[in-house]
Request: fold
Amino acid sequence: MSQARGEWSSKLGFIFAAAGSAIGLGNIWRFPYLVGENGGAAFVLLYILFVIVIGLPYMFGELALGRFVQRNPVGAIQAIRPGSAWKWVGYLGVFTGVGILSFYGVIAGWTVAYIYKMAVGSFGGFGELISDPLAVSLLFAFFILLTSAIVYGGVSGGIERWSKILMPVLFLLLFGLIVYSVLLDGASAGLKFYLNPDFSKITGRVVLAALGQAFFSLSLGMGLMITYGSYMSKKEDLTSSGLYVGLFDTMVAFMAGLIIFPALFAMGENPAAGPGLVFVIFPKLFAQMPGGQIVGVLFFILLAIAALTSTISLLEVPVAFMVDEHKAPRKKIVWAVAGVTFIFGLPSALSQGASEYFTNFGLIPGRLTDPDFLSQMSFLWGDFSLAFGALMLSIFIGWVWGADKAADEIESGATGFGKLRGLWIFMIRYFIPLVIFIILLNLFGLFN
Reply:
């Protein structure tokens, strides 16, 4: 492999980087409010089941394709089917990386503001913050710069090195905050809600919500795992590496719930508070808690680190494409892609009250998502594009490249995969595309 492309220096480096890409605001911000809205522990069990049954087998497919060809999503598809229209599935992955980063970086910027707000004892004012055009633009710019500085360092010197630092810090913060939260008076009611399943709460809506969260939380569908797989050694056990990524991702989501629900019930707040849970409800809780100011600072540092480990991987997808396909020097192309992403993301930054036009953009129908530009981008890139990309990639891996060839690549260096080979081939060819198609239909409200 060309050292200009870069490769992981160790299995641990890959696991931390890939787990970091999967671990993000989806685990610590989105997962808890979905648990709250969908009845608690029964949703959690379904989520874990779907990660194992759907998410991991699909992830193995993306990793195998990347390692086999050792190129980005566009290059990998071109190598298997040169000159075909399938390359557009790869391009969709590249555009999706930029699209998600453009709005995700905005929310990530809010976490930085809240570290400061907690430190100075300012527990409210979320509406004022996100409607201040200068503040949100500077926060967004800061987070994109921070992300770019890490990706600029390359695969092993930048992404891997920082993932090895950030991931242990993330887990330390999680452990500390869990201990604090479960010892609060009244925390046991939250633990019961979160850990004691009431199976009567399971409805079609709950099943679909758990399915969507399991799939999206693993960063699947935009070819990110193709890119990360392309930096893997042929000797690496792809299945065990993928299992560790899934385990870490699920652990972080689960641990976030152990922080959030005991604290919510201890303070008498509604667990179904929705997306405002972290930025509106939690600062109120920190204002009432003993030692809440310090806990607040640590909580938002945790959130910022989780966001950063994801934004690194989102930026790496288009950067890897430019390095591979256009022989662009990494150190220049990082800043170019970051600049384009910042310009593309400014409407999202201004869409929470700073600009009337972008706040009520409303191009996508209101029955599917909110009218603000950020929500519209989140639906387009974070929901639809990921699911559609995953559907196309699962068909490409299972039928165009061929499930047998993909299974051969997974088996290379893996122990024990042979026994599950037939089941995996059935999953990637039939079951996984069907499930992703159902997720797509649900996005468009066909099951409401």
Q: What stands out?
A: The chain has one domain: 11-443. The chain has a mean pLDDT of 92. The chain has 18 helices and no strands.
